[in-house]
Amino acid sequence: MARPDLEAGQVLGGFTVEEELHRGGMATLWRVSHPEYPFPLLMKVPKIGASQDPAAIVSFEMEQMILPRLSGVHVPKFVAAGDFSTPQPFIVMERIKGDTLYGKLLDLPLPTTR
Predict the structure, then answer these.
(1) 87 vs 46 pLDDT, higher one
(2) Residue 67 CB coordination number (10 Å)
(3) For 27-79, how does the pLDDT look when each residue is reduced to its tens digit (9 = 90+)?
């Protein structure tokens, strides 16, 4: 069953949805806030529905399992998740400031440095 789109001002899992940042083929990214987290947050919401690619669900579930186990300066900090038993699944993570890697796709392959 398709889930409704989020809108700015909604609260999901205690996080206030503020602004849509990106709408991709498999998920939508939102800027969110929460009083317990003083750093910038990003919420990833998968596209779910009869007309959507099932790979989006599998990829999202994999990310939910893997992200909490990763650490390091190059990895956004995992904050929270709502799984498929909730009305709307989501992942909340630290939002790392800077340019996205999406723009680098045009530059592929990138040189390696040693």
Answers:
(1) 46
(2) 17
(3) 899 999 999 999 999 999 988 776 767 788 888 889 999 999 999 887 899 99
| Residue 27 contacts residue 56 (beta carbons within 8 Å) | yes
Tokens of 66: 């893997």
Q: Are 19 and 29 in contact (CB under 8 A)?
A: no
DSSP helix/strand/coil, 75: coil
**CATH says 11-107 is which class?**
alpha beta
Task: Give the chain's radius of gyration (CA, Å).
Answer: 15
Rounded Cα distance, 43 and 35, in Å: 15
SS3 sequence of 33-67: EECCEEEEEEEEEECCCCCCCHHHHHHHHHHHHHH
Structure tokens at 24: 């991709």
| CB 2 within 8 Å of CB 30 | no
Closest to 93 in 3D by CA, of 81, 78, 108: 78
Q: To 5 degrees, how large is the angle CA 89–CA 75–CA 112? A: 130
